[in-house]
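Lab channel / #folding
Pinned by the channel admin:
"Please post every new chain as: sequence first, then the structure tokens as a reply. Keep commentary short and put observations after the output so the thread stays searchable."

First post following the new format, from NK:
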Amino acid sequence: MKLGKSDVTLNEQDTLQDMLEGEKQLMNIYTTALFEGSTKNIRKNFSANLLGVAENQYCLFNQMSSRGYYKPQPAKKMMIDQANDTYKKQKNSLKAN
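Reply from TO:
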């Protein structure tokens, strides 16, 4: 099957979404690498890279949001309360150990 030029062209929204997903994946990779880094110098480099990727992700989010492509919904109070409860339980569990 032969694809024509129009079959592989992404519009602006698709392109920005693809870039945003890529940045999110890089954040996960750098976070894992930071946790597993065995020397201070390596961890420092991973940390700097993670901050750079986080900044790129935020810029892409702002671009998408300003164009109306990304419309996050506000969290419901119940979801916030549930997240706080989970955090408190984990915090207390760590204190007990």
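NK: The chain has a mean pLDDT of 88.
TO: also worth noting, The two ends are 60 Å apart (CA to CA).
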